[in-house]
Amino acid sequence: MRALSRGDPRRLFLIDVPTVELCNGVHMPQVGLGSADAGVVRSALAAGYRGVELTGGLTGIPRHELFVVARTSDNPRTLELAGLDHVDLCLLDGPVDDFVQTWKAFEKFAADGRTRAIGVSDFQIPHLRRLSEETGTVPAVNRVELRPGLLHSNLRAYHSEHGITTLAYHPLTVNSDIEFMAQKYGKTPAQIVVRWHLELKHVVAVGPDVVDEALGVFDFELAEDDVLSLSEVD
Fold first, then answer.
1. What angle do CA 194, 177, 147 make, to 5 degrees?
2. CA-based radius of gyration for the chain
3. Contact predicate 227/192, CB 8 Å
4. 21 by DSSP, 3-state: which?
5. Which of 7-11, 97-101, 214-218 bottoms out in mean pLDDT, i.e. has the lowest?
6. 160-186 pLDDT, tens per residue?
7. Does residue 138 fall inside a structural domain?
């Protein structure tokens, strides 16, 4: 599988892995990956992954097994739903223009049953607070660039306080501590970092270049001290 270019919005999520319960009761798979084309999607589905953002390669997969994610900076009704009657999560991509008015369109999209949950991407605390104050609706998910060394500690604390699930993109990094832990646990550095995200209850989206590795993170846990050591440097 070839890797995505940085910033590609398409995301593919696992099913039959641990899930997190969003603030509205929807269960979202906790590990996912980016995809580039229908061939990548088909290969990943064959490996056990389920769901993708509005792309090809879904042939033969029952809809109830998929978790389909869409991301747009515009009115969600402009989304081409690729023949689907709904998506599982629709993300408002960045606090651009009058994002409060766009968010109100997302609320209507959810009320109409066209999406099971609505969230945001790359919002900071002032943006999240403004949405809450002016609309009364808390985003189910905030998608942010996050990894050891780029922790967004204050933002994640705000998420926890208000029931917002953190979706981490570009989640991987390598340093001497991670390499040491990889040797200690008999895992790869990527698996150590993905496991760190799981221990912190993040939803994590990895790239297709580590799709096979990502399937190997469910048979071990990190010691509490190791989780803390990767959570100290921001």
1. 40
2. 17
3. no
4. strand
5. 7-11
6. 999 999 999 999 999 999 999 999 999
7. yes
Q: Phi, psi (5° rounding) for residue 194?
A: -60, -45
User: What CA–CA distance (Å, rounded) separates 198 from 41?
Assistant: 23
Amino acid at 70: A
Instruction: Work out the average pLDDT over 90-119.
Output: 94
Residue 55 CB neighbour total at 10 angstroms: 17
231/234 Cα distance (integer angstroms): 8
Q: What is the DSSP letter of 2?
A: P
Take residue 105 and report the two structure tokens written for it.
């369109």
Positions marked catalytic = 49
The residue range of the domain holding 115 is 11-230
- When pLDDT is averaged across residues 83-93 and rounded to a whole number, the result is 87
Beta strand residue intervals within 53-206, DSSP E: 69-72, 89-93, 118-121, 141-145, 165-169, 203-206
Residue 165 Cα distances to 60, 63, 186, angstroms? 30, 24, 30
In a domain, 163, yes or no: yes
User: Domain containing 107 — which CATH number?
Assistant: 3.20.20.100
pTM over the 0.70 mark: yes
